[in-house]
From TrEMBL, chains A, B, C, D:
InterPro entries: Homeodomain-like_sf (IPR009057), HTH-type_TetR-like_transc_reg (IPR050109), HTH_TetR (IPR001647), PdxS/SNZ (IPR001852). Residues 31-50 bind DNA. Residues 8-68 form the HTH tetR-type domain. GO terms for molecular function: DNA-binding transcription factor activity; transcription cis-regulatory region binding. Keywords: DNA-binding, Transcription, Transcription regulation. Belongs to the PdxS/SNZ family. GO terms for biological process: pyridoxal phosphate biosynthetic process. It comes from the Bacteria. This is HTH tetR-type domain-containing protein.
Length: 204, 204, 204, 204
DNA sequence: AATGAATGAGACTTCATTCAT
DNA sequence: CATGAATGAAGTCTCATTCAT
């Protein structure tokens, strides 16, 4: 077990170094030597833990997804989510400001997705899981209120786009609007839309 | 004049080839040799027209911005815009489906912005110009209706994020929702929000 | 004849431009495009006058030799030279300060001589001609005075080295000693040596 | 320690190969591939030890200066120098014949100095250090003999020029005069001048 | 004679990967 | 496990030269 710990500690060192560098300069501009220097490990040492540069990249991707999951899903308990439809939005807006480097990495991977089907697949799978969870929550919520749950694909897509847009906005445009204010504003935009939808769409 | 035409024709050839390749594989994965092959020109010939690989990239960026401008701004006449607040949205959604490679390039440049201040500056300047135009239109429109025009910074940022989100969604997630449907849905989301804002915020 | 003049004027333009650039940056660092720009001529135009980059270089070499000849030989009339053994030294020291770029070019060609036998041959031939002329003058002078003229090869070589050294010193070390002072100093060094030689070496 | 040795051994291999080639063909005509072939190392291996082609060049420059220092300074013990003013001249003339490639490199660097201030600075610093040492020796020597030491700047410059001239003469003109003979001749030229100077210039 | 666009060989440099120690 | 020297492929860029107009 000590072994395993050392292994995973080393891996973490490397992944963190890679993340930091990639968020600053981009992945293509980050060399293995850079990562080694920052992680304080030799080139050969790195090779023991990661077969490839790609191997590191996927580890970074997993870590990014994991961190995003923690922020958006794990931090919002089921009960909260059910009682307050804005809880997710709150968690999202909180994270958006406190962890810009995370969103830079997401933007980076999203861009890479264009020519890397493997990355695309992984990312889409994650977003799909978010979406499913969201849907499940809605259904449960609506069930409780005895209202039929209906959410069209277009609606789901649109909501996802809005989420991505906020990420892109903060990662790329460096929006100065503070997260709390943005949260209020986004609530004004989204809540009526969501409620209007569930109320008015008996058939989609 | 023949000379000038030849110059610009060649430049166009090269820029188009570069765009096509970059939209497919990404810029870093596109070699100068690839561009030359696709543009049917020799390496040295390319050098005559572009100093650098970067020089090509900026030409591509300008072309992308130009195309986006045409789609979003030029195609919506002033009159239309004033009479129909959804005209812009319409133009946007139209373009989103017909020209995915354009949005891939934008996603690419957005991602590059993270570590290339020069690209970031150019892109932000363009988005700011879009935003200004939008604001001007709103003011004019509201003036006519004798209603005070108020749009908070947060609102403007949010709307810009939504736009970026749609781009990112289509460029990266390959959304299958057809553009017309998405337009309808986006209208449901945005129009109430916009009108609510202008109605309810006498002072921001 | 007009034709010939135009030709030679163009050639001069080009050679002068090439000299200026080579004296500043060195020959290898001077591109044909640079020369064209400075000579205000197109690449193709240059080709009409010079077959090669080498062709230009040899034209420069000839011009340099010509200028040096003018300074060292032509400017010292035969009579002067015979009456005053320091006349040559004077001409030399004069030129050394007034035309440093000339000496830079000589240093450049001297250095190139190492790997370019053709340049070496041309330069050595010129220096040999200088040497011969010097010797002839000495003989004539000595004959008049009824003293046997003897100058060993070693002596000739040494004197040539001193000359080269002054060139190198000014071209490379940027000596600050004014030419007049250097002339005085060199006279103190050389004149006794020359006279001592001719007096004391009845047989070499 | 093994590591360090390997590093410096490899560096030496590379520097020596570079020197040999540069002395033959000139630096600009020496490609990195050539150096690699001669040093029996791969391109990437070379990069490990030298960042740049320039980096190699400066290592060569340092080596050249080091070798020159050894020949001219280290080989002449202080005692010798003080007792025999010709010792330095002797060392110099000895070296001039036995190590022509060294002088070719010096000529090369001198020529490069024209357009490379960094090289110029390094070389001038070395020659200045030679000059200082020379001056210090003279002062000590003269002190012992109770004669005032006076050496004008012009005199120092002239002597340095003579030294450079001998280098240039052998490096460039391929003088055939054997070193011993040249030494005798140079002594005839210089010794009277030096002694005359120190005797006759109570105030300069 | 003149123009300058086009060519393509070749140089420099970077870097992911391998491997002996 | 770890080190870092070594490899060599691949990419970018420069530039002398050619050639159609």
């Amino acid at each position: 077990m000590g072994r395993i710990n050392i292994r995973s500690i080393r891996r973490q060192q490397i992944v963190h170094a890679a993340e930091e560098l990639a968020a600053q300069r981009g992945w293509a501009e980050t060399t293995i030597a850079d990562i080694c220097k920052k992680a304080d490990i030799s080139v050969g040492g790195l090779t023991h833990h990661f077969k490839d540069k790609d191997d590191i990249m996927f580890a970074v991707l997993e870590d990014v997804i994991h961190r995003l999951h923690d922020r958006l899903v794990a931090s919002v308990s089921k009960e909260e989510a059910q009682q307050n439809p804005g809880a997710f939005l709150h968690a999202f807006c909180q994270s958006i400001e406190s962890d810009r480097s995370l969103y830079r990495l997401i933007l980076h991977f999203a861009s890479s997705s264009i020519h890397r089907p493997d990355i695309k697949q992984r990312l889409k799978a994650f977003f799909a899981s978010l979406h499913q969870r969201d849907e499940a929550q809605c259904q449960e919520q609506e069930k409780r209120k005895d209202k039929p749950y209906i959410r069209s694909q277009a609606m789901a897509d649109l909501l996802q786009c809005v989420g991505l847009g906020l990420i892109l906005g903060y990662a790329f445009l460096d929006l100065q609007t503070p997260a709390e204010q943005m949260e209020v504003e986004a609530a004004k935009l989204l809540l009526p839309y969501i409620q209007y939808q569930s109320a008015s769409s008996p058939q989609s």
